């Protein structure tokens, strides 16, 4: 896992920006707000994240003080991605791709809640974790805890609360509402 993270972080630092297919206006505004605030947005790159063994939907990462939001589209194709050429292929956006933008964007908001907004020190946005779990559902919460428990070996429950909150927010808040939260907590 540490080797994968190191490779991912190193490749993000040298990845070139992608040209995106049109996004719904609210999601584009959310990405634009984060980009204006210094978040580097990458679509279908770096290859180690989007085409590796992990089959990631996305990531929010801070590396050497720089913030990166990575979206790995559902319909990306290895045949259309060549790391040695200019990346211009962006697949049509799926509902899951849009959900991933909201989820990873919410992690950027969580990063603004404690410390500085580029230190990868998160805090919860919502005051009641119990209310989040009640609204999101015990089944969904347990599914996330099971899926993410291997990612957070040292502290199985402490960090997973941020994932639960991000899944909840992505499902229950629009990109416009999340953009407003970003402006409130991060700008």
Task: Explain the layout of strands and helices.
Layout: H1 2-14, H2 25-36, E1 39-43, H3 47-50, E2 58-63, E3 66-71, H4 95-112, H5 129-136, H6 138-148, H7 160-172, H8 175-186
Parallel strand pairs: 1-3
Antiparallel strand pairs: 2-3
Helix pairs in contact: 2-4, 2-8, 4-7, 4-8, 5-7
Question: What does this molecule look like?
Answer:
This protein is mostly helical. The protein has one domain (2-186). It is 49% helix and 9% strand. Strand 2 and strand 3 form a beta hairpin. Helix 2 runs parallel beside helix 8 (175-186). The chain starts with a helix and ends with a helix.
Keywords:
single chain, 187 residues, mainly alpha, 3-stranded mixed beta sheet, disordered N terminus
Describe what is shown at a glance:
The protein contains eight helices and three strands.
